[in-house]
Amino acid sequence: MSASHPVDVFDLGPEHEQVVFANDPGTGLKAVIAIHSTALGPALGGTRFHPYASTADAVADVLNLSRGMSYKAALAGLDLGGGKAVIIGDPRTAKSEPLLRAYGRHVQSLGGRYYTACDVGTNSSDMDVIARECSYVTGRTVAHGGAGDSSVLTAYGVFQGMRAAATVAWGGPSLEGRTVGVAGVGKVGHHLVRHLVEAGASVVVTDVDPAAVELVRSELPAVRVVESAEALVAGGLDVYAPCALGGALTDEVVEVLSARIVCGAANNQLAHPGIEKMLEERGILYAPDYCVNAGGLIQVADELEGFSFERAQQRAAAIFDTTLMVFELAASEGVPPAIAADRLAERRMREVSRLRGMWVPTR
């Protein structure tokens, strides 16, 4: 960015309704809140706390993530739009009560157009602190009437999506005897492994954090461990479940992947446009990430009605049917599932937006 080559901020996120830069020098808060769409209702999306190398990197991430939340909420059938926030800094050293409360005041200033929740670098206890200054917070602790750890239903939804993919690939939802490789066994991956083991699958895992691997192995000793994601994808798998960072499906990974199905919890798994076609050409059935990982969003959204785990779990179970719907549309229209999922989400946003337009708080 320079005086001779100024950047037009409207070119940064041309689809977005609103992008807010939040600054509080007293606490060190530097945050960006992006509201992609409120066609279906107020925007909901987590707050990511991360030491971005630059403000430009933070903006790029929040724009991409908030757009993804619009599609995730629409495909999940929720009356919510898509938003996201990022706080720039290392949460291990920069996070503090004053900073979180200052951030809460900025969210409050949006008057309910954006609801925040947990994401990478934040947790339910942080949401309780933010809520001391803000009415538009979900994903709070159980002690404060919240939904608690949203990774529980995120993993459950991915498991349901995987069963739907198995139905298409092998004629039935059972994963018994199938070899499933899980890359990333943090909170979501850990819960997913448990579902798979209980379903009779043979599970192979990897993670950059040795402690996460040991925790899984101590609880589920039948799980096998490999040293890296590269070793995992090169092995003989029936299902590959990326559950760590985005961009896991690169050209190199797709070229060597033996799995018949890819279905995981990670966001933005396709490294670049065109990967979805490569997967299809290789006969690999891809369950779109934002379709199958919507269980966490469903869980925190349910909190806005007064949280019921049973109700939220029933809604997350519907990810099985939604995933099948995506595969059916993909087959009928001759497109990869990733494009079919986008079409379904865009259709719902377009049809409802004709009735509502942009969501604004009521007096």
Automatic annotation (TrEMBL):
Keywords assigned by UniProt, alphabetized: NAD, Oxidoreductase
Q: Which Gene3D superfamilies match?
A: Leucine Dehydrogenase, chain A, domain 1, NAD(P)-binding Rossmann-like Domain
Cited InterPro entries: Aminoacid_DH-like_N_sf, Glu/Leu/Phe/Val/Trp_DH, Glu/Leu/Phe/Val/Trp_DH_C, Glu/Leu/Phe/Val/Trp_DH_dimer, Glu/Leu/Phe/Val_DH_AS, Glu/Phe/Leu/Val/Trp_DH_bac/arc, NAD(P)-bd_dom_sf
The record's similarity note reads: Belongs to the Glu/Leu/Phe/Val dehydrogenases family.
State what protein this is by name. Glu/Leu/Phe/Val dehydrogenase dimerization domain-containing protein
Q: Does the keyword rRNA-binding apply?
A: no
Residue span(s) of domain Glutamate/phenylalanine/leucine/valine/L-tryptophan dehydrogenase C-terminal? 148-357
